[in-house]
Each structure stands twice: as structure tokens, then as C-alpha cells.
Specification:
heterodimer, A: alpha/beta, Rossmann fold, eight-stranded mixed beta sheet, six-stranded parallel beta sheet, 17 helices, 46% helix, globular, B: alpha+beta, 2 strands, 30% helix
Chain lengths: 412, 56
């Protein structure tokens, strides 16, 4: 079986999704599947098949697309510059993917709705399409917009032209896919709201390569926490949607109650400078350490006492699973797919999203209670080891491909 | 050596063909795309234009 794993987005800058793609590819290869991985390489402005070292530069088509789809001749196309930019980029992606070739695969597994729509537009034969929805595109676009316009509401955004545009990509990709892979009930619900039939969904949680994780965790992290301080940890991209600003507000408030903690933040992103400034302004500059992007999170987590995932929206963050595997008790935000990851009080805790006071109070209580922290951390570790096996994810995904082939490609 | 040809040779991909004599494109790449892109492939994407033509 020949499978193409393809994303429209930057392949290696996708955080947990890149880990998913890499691990899935390795697992499928070990099961005898031929796997190619296609995505964008922004640094070279190209689309490439990573494992074959083949690429197509978007520069070959971009000037032509931009000149022919211009504001004078197609004013409706360019009326919203953001949408025109998205469209132009997708067209360049489509041409690049067509040039690299997509018709010879037995199954194409798109990792996002944009890639799914693009691939379906360029296929010459009915290659079965499976699409993974790692996030909710239209809702993520809303949070991006809300960052610069705090008054914006989700429902008004989804009714706007931009909202409808992103929803239509989710809807079209789902309609064109034989089967849909989701990791959580929540992400599935965002699609069933768009009238995608139940029968198309297969739910497979994200897994972790446990032996590889244990081997990384065995390495010593370069620094120990200060004596007498417990570590509150966050790992992930430093972007608005991750809600790190909420955690910092809670920490600033916690500081007035107690000082027996430090917060270690691993990751980078477009909010790095802003978050550093927030920490300084809140007077907790000495208590929060920004480690930047680390290549060994399991080792880093060995020193964590509590893990916080304050995200505004997340499907099933890989970082939470990593913390659970480290035996670190986790606090997740009670929104999107995150509450599905913990059994409250037994394998973690859920706090209302963006609720600074609740988060502060829970942190305060947990810093006080070593026994509960250890019990919950141990239970979470046992649960994650039982339920996040890569072997099972590989086998079940392969079954989904076989089912998609059996169902056959939809008529183009 | 890259052989460049006028982009207007590929106006068939555009639902509103616009003359762009100032833009040249790589003949080898375009020739390959002519072979590989399906019949009826068109810019802009008609499904997206339904939304882009609508009121905000």
C-alpha cells in the first residue's frame, strides 16, 4: 500500500502534529506500508516530499497567479486581501502538489482541510481520501482575529465572510473524504454541526512512542529547580490560542499568596516577547523561566510538579499526554477536547477556560498537597501508558486506510 | 538552462483570462503541469468564489 501523508501547512513547524505525522509514518513503514510525507517548507517557499527530497518552488507559479488574479480584473476575488492571499497560496500548493504527483497513491491522508480540498481538486482518478482534523480551522481563525479585536464573538465571526470561508473549507473537505479521523469527541462535534454524517468518523487518540519517550526521559535535564521551589510547567507554542497569558495572570496572583514555586515555560512563538513583558510587568520576572524551544521535553518534565495547559482551544494536546507520561499531575482548560483527557480528581483537573481565579486557587491547593499531586500524577501515568500506545494507533489507522480503499474513491 | 515562455500560453486555467505579457514562466514546469492537472481545473476555485462573491 502506498500512502501520502500531506499537509498544506509548514511541515516541521506544526508542534504536536509534526510529531504525529513522523510517528505515524514510522509505524506504518514498520507495518510494510510505503509512506511519503508532503508539506510546505516556508524557508524555501516550496512544497516538498520530505522523504524523497523532491520539491517544487511556489515561485514558479506565484507571479503568474498574482498577475492574472488581480484586483482590476477580479475585484471580488481580491475584495478581502486575507481570503485572496489564502486562495492564492492554496492554488500555488495545488500546482506544486500536482507537479510532484499525487495520482499514484492508494490512499491520501490529508492532515488538514486545506490540504484535503487542494488534493481533491488536482486528482485525476478516485484515490480514496482520509482527512484528519487536528484542529478546528474556522474557530482558530476566530481566536487569531479576537487577539486584535477583543470584542469579537465566535458566532458573529462564523457568520462573517471570513468565518463562512473557513467553515466551507472544513465542510468541503469532510464531504470529499471517504473517512474522517478525529482524536476527540469535541473535534468531531465541530464537524457534525456542519452536517457531516456520523458514519464517516473514526476516533483514534494521538499516541506516543513509549520506548522512545522513556529513553528521552532517562536523560538528565541541564538544570535543577531552585531549592525549596516546586515547578509549575507549560510546554507548547507561545501563541495567543495557547492561553499562556492566562497562566501568567494566575501566577501573578498566586505570588501574593506564596513563593514556593517557579514556572518553567518551554516553547517559542509569536507571543514570546509579549509574554516576557507581561511577566516583567507583573513583578514575577524572577519566578518564571522561558527556556525557549527544547528538544527533550520528557527530560524537562522530570523536574515538573504540576503541568498547566491553559489553552483557549485545543483538540488533544500532545503536551498534556507527555506530562501525564512523566507522572506529572495536569491541569487543563475546560474547553474543546481537553476535558476528555482527564478524569477530574483522579488523573488531573479541569478549570474553566480563561478563569484566572480558579486556576490560582487550584495551583495554591496543589502546591500545598504533595500526596494528592503524587497520587494523581501516578494515576495519569498509568492511564496514559495504557491508552496512548503507538502500536495501536498505527494498526487502527491502517485499518481506516483499508476501509477507505474498500469504500473506494468518491466520484470526482 | 530554464526556457521561459509567456504566461498567456496558460490562460486556459483561468476562468477570466487576463493578458500578462510581462510575466514569463518556466516552460518545463508548465508543460508538466499541463499534463498533470485535471481537465476542467480552473482559477479561481468556483466553490470559494460563491463565498467571496457574497455579502459580508
Amino acid at each position: 500500500m502506498r500512502v501520502l501523508l500531506v499537509t498544506y501547512w509548514e511541515l516541521t513547524h506544526m508542534g504536536g502534529i509534526w510529531t504525529y505525522v513522523k510517528q505515524l509514518a514510522d509505524r506504518l513503514i514498520s507495518l510494510g506500508v510505503e509512506v511519503d510525507i508532503m508539506g510546505t517548507n516556508g524557508a524555501n517557499n516550496e512544497v516538498y516530499i520530505r522523504n524523497l527530497n523532491r520539491a517544487f518552488s511556489k515561485d514558479k507559479v506565484w507571479p503568474m497567479l498574482q498577475a492574472k488574479l488581480n484586483p482590476t480584473d477580479l475585484p471580488q476575488f481580491t475584495a478581502d486581501p486575507l481570503l485572496a492571499y489564502y486562495e492564492l497560496n492554496r492554488y500555488a500548493f495545488e500546482m506544486a502538489a500536482a507537479y510532484l504527483g499525487v495520482d499514484h497513491y492508494d490512499v491520501i491522508h490529508a492532515q488538514d482541510p486545506v490540504a484535503a480540498v487542494a488534493i481533491k481538486r488536482i486528482l485525476n482518478r478516485n484515490v480514496p481520501l482520509v482527512t484528519s482534523y487536528h484542529g478546528a480551522l474556522a474557530r482558530e481563525a476566530f481566536y487569531d482575529a479576537q487577539n486584535s479585536n477583543p470584542q469579537l464573538t465566535l458566532s458573529s465571526y462564523l457568520q462573517s465572510k471570513r468565518g463562512r470561508y473557513f467553515l466551507s473549507l472544513e465542510q468541503r473537505s469532510a464531504a470529499q473524504s471517504e473517512l474522517i479521523l478525529v482524536s476527540s469527541h469535541w473535534i468531531k462535534s465541530t464537524l457534525t454541526e456542519l452536517a457531516v454524517p456520523e458514519s464517516k468518523f473514526r476516533q483514534i487518540p494521538y499516541a506516543v512512542d513509549l520506548p522512545a519517550y522513556r529513553s528521552l526521559a532517562a536523560t538528565k535535564f541541564r538544570q535543577r529547580p531552585p531549592a525549596g521551589k516546586k515547578v509549575i510547567a507549560f510546554t507548547g507554542r507561545l501563541e495567543y490560542i495557547k492561553g499562556v497569558h492566562v497562566l501568567i495572570k494566575a501566577l501573578a496572583s498566586l505570588k501574593s499568596k506564596r513563593s514556593d514555586w517557579v514556572c518553567w515555560i518551554a516553547g517559542e512563538g509569536n507571543l514570546t516577547d509579549e509574554l516576557r513583558a507581561q511577566v516583567t510587568a507583573a513583578g514575577i520576572g524572577a519566578d518564571v523561566v522561558f527556556w525557549g524551544k527544547l528538544d527533550n521535553i520528557p527530560s524537562f518534565l522530570r523536574h515538573a510538579d504540576i503541568y498547566v495547559q491553559p489553552s483557549l482551544q485545543d483538540t488533544q494536546p500532545f503536551s498534556v499526554t507527555e506530562a501525564q507520561l512523566a507522572g506529572v499531575p495536569v491541569i487543563v482548560s475546560g474547553t474543546a477536547g481537553m476535558p476528555e483527557m482527564v478524569d477530574p480528581g483522579r488523573t488531573g483537573w479541569v478549570v474553566p477556560p480563561q478563569d484566572v481565579d480558579s486556576l490560582r486557587e487550584l495551583l495554591h491547593a496543589l502546591l500545598e498537597d504533595d500526596v494528592t499531586r503524587k497520587q494523581v500524577g501516578a494515576a495519569a501515568k498509568a492511564w496514559a501508558e495504557q491508552n496512548r500506545s503507538l502500536e495501536e494507533m498505527g494498526l487502527r489507522t491502517l485499518q481506516v486506510y483499508q476501509e477507505a480503499i474498500y469504500r473506494g474513491g468518491l466520484t470526482i | 538552462m530554464t526556457l521561459l515562455v509567456p504566461s498567456d500560453l496558460y490562460n486556459r486555467w483561468f476562468s477570466t483570462p487576463v493578458s500578462t505579457p510581462h510575466i514569463d514562466v518556466d516552460y518545463a514546469a508548465m508543460n508538466e503541469l499541463m499534463k498533470k492537472l485535471p481537465k476542467g481545473y480552473v482559477f479561481p476555485d468556483p466553490a470559494s468564489m460563491v463565498i467571496m462573491n457574497s455579502q459580508d
